[in-house]
Amino acid sequence: MSKKYVMGNSAIALGALSAGVNLVSGYPGTPSSEIIETIVKYPHEGTYAEWSVNEKAAMEVAAAAAYCGARAMVTMKQVGLNVASDPLMSLAYVGVKGGMVVVSADDPGPISSQTEQDTRRFAEFARIPVFDPSSPEEAYEMVQDAFEYSEKYKTPVILRPTTRVDHAYASIDAPDSFKAKDYEGFVKDSKKWVIFPRLSYQNHAMIEKRNIEIGEDFSSCRYNTFTGSSQKAVVATGVSYAYAREFLKDYPEIKLIKVGAPYPTPESFLLKALDGVTEALCFEELSPFIEESLLKLIGKHRLNITVRGKLTGDVPPSGENDADSAKRIIGSFLGLDISESKVDLSGAPQPPVRPPVLCAGCPHRASFYAVKKAMKGRKAYFCGDIGCYTLGNAMPLDMVDTCLCMGAGITMAQGFNHMDSDAVAFSFAGDSTFFASGITGVVNAVYNAADMIVCVLDNSTTAMTGHQPHPGTGRNLMSAPVDKISIEKILLAAGVKKVVTVDPLDLDAAVAAVKECAELKGVKAIIFKSPCVAIVKPEGKMRVNSEKCVGCMRCIKEIGCPALFVNDGQVVIDENLCTGCGLCAKLCKVAAIGGAEK
Amino acid sequence: MKKDVMICGVGGQGTVLASKIIAASAMDEGYAVHSAETIGMAQRGGSVTSHVRIGEDAFSPLIPLGSVDLLIAFEPSEAVRNLKYLKSDGFVIVNSVPVKPTSLGGGGDYDGKAEIEFLKSKCSCLVINSDELCAPFGSNKFFNVAVLGAAAGTGRLGLSADTVRSEIIKIVPERFHEKNLAAFEAGYKLGEKSNADK
Fold first, then answer.
1. What ipTM does the predicted assembly reach?
2. Nearest CA to CA, how far is A342 from chain B (Å)?
3. Cα–Cα distance between B45 and A292 in angstroms, integer?
4. Is A541-596 a domain of CATH 3.30.70.20?
């Protein structure tokens, strides 16, 4: 054992390893990605881990391990659970033998997600237990307990951390090496493992009965606690409990009820905690989950308690809570003094806006620019997808018209084509996104005879979430060399007539490829292949010849590279940022930009 | 000891290493530590903050407004952006060299001078020019360690300079030890001098 200063995601991984986890699978997604990455960092014996091609695959791989009596964990972000919901909903009926923990990381804010969905709702929908950690330390303990509950009740159990727990650092006392548990192996029993309507009917009844038992079990669970004795109570969950506690640490008499195991509803616990309470404020993020649980309970038991929270407008319906909103909202609920001594900020200069942009030298910028240039004067739809390249929507590129969910660009481009065949329909998906959920879209396009251009922005990594390997990289999570799966061959096998692979930084060739494809009928594909600049060493630097530069600002106005800026009416290149990609030099009309010495 | 330290700057300036060294040093001196960093999309070219909370009583992973004891800013406008977190009697160490925002037109005439004047008028602060301080080491990249020296030199960090030095040696790759320790000393002298000047 030793103290390890780690982020919440690593604490979850260490907890799973301490619980002797046999198999861990998942798909990257902020804020969950570091869980799997931690699994392979510590010495472990007998634990298999993989980056799966998507969340559905990860869930199914893990389910089979749990059928074998092994302990399995599957990790994803909240929208990943949407992808994995098909196996999860059925798995909830079938159940498991070995412990199975589904980690689905929610993202209040949202900080880096499409939705503010609440995984606790998913747990309730699937009728399976869920734990909601308030700190990395607690997440470490909870994941271990989640395996125990999973085995005790033979059901998958969800752990749903949120971004501020995933990314917070704390010291964890954990072993230095780990050994996976022994497991029995799969015992064939088709009555148990093959889902049929009859089995679902029987198990549905069993699950509803069992959930009452789990609710009772959760009533004495160490994650559901309360302190204080006031008539006005604060009910908090997850990291919101940490914010509430921060504010209430000077008010120990105030009743603070923490619900860390919220579903199945721990009724006995809540009734005990609410004894003597006349008014309760639910301080939680995402959906009013505990608030609605309390309202149901109060109605069922005809209690005279006023419940405040999101439904009453006391807590904002969207966005994240923090220590300051805790102070403001809880302070006003309790009528406490919340004045503070801050620095006088009157007259402060407005800080500049710093929006996230595609990196200097990012090949996606060149790919978007090539398509933009080739389509100048033509009507076209640009369907984007999930990844760094969503940032292609920013001015001056302005090349992402839609972004919905993983893989949607390819299929949405088909819908646009069917509605408006005069326009050229493009989709842009990264290599990892293509493997995760792009392939079915391509098959759909070919099968239904759409006219479209599938652009694969292949930078040989999963860049946005921290450069994880994927099926096209020739490496897997264990870094073992594996066969590279060819995107080009997949496209050809699916029946795409024209597949061109081009280096987007070779601007003329890239523009020509787009123009050629736009003249053809049917499904065409262009693989823009150039590695992510964050994983390769820059080849050199560009420099502006100040005698030649006429200050037309074309380079700045056309591509929006962060390494280009204006100083005294002339363009200057920030050598710390420039990677020497040369895109700016290619569009300079007076050849004022050239390679500087390396 | 209870201390909230915030480090702010622009993605790519090396704020994370500075926060890691502070956290490790505080743990080495036996304190409970919690911290949080900006992760993900905002990392590149965006505003970034690290929150380091030293002491048992820190429950929120992020420091509440008006609670920061020491604000270490790698950039003038980022110091102003995060000044709302500073206690009324908190201390600011700020780099006067601006990072121009990466927007169309190159950020207008932003040069950081108004920001530094504003900071000086509102709170006690130590202004450091990273170009000058880091010139002997050949790169501004050493500012993250130099500024820790300055923080230790003012006594505002609440941690011994020896502890911080030993953590630098543990965390930084060996081939960079000499330059980093020299950068730390250069910062330390600035910090000490600013105390003596008062």
1. 0.92
2. 5
3. 41
4. yes
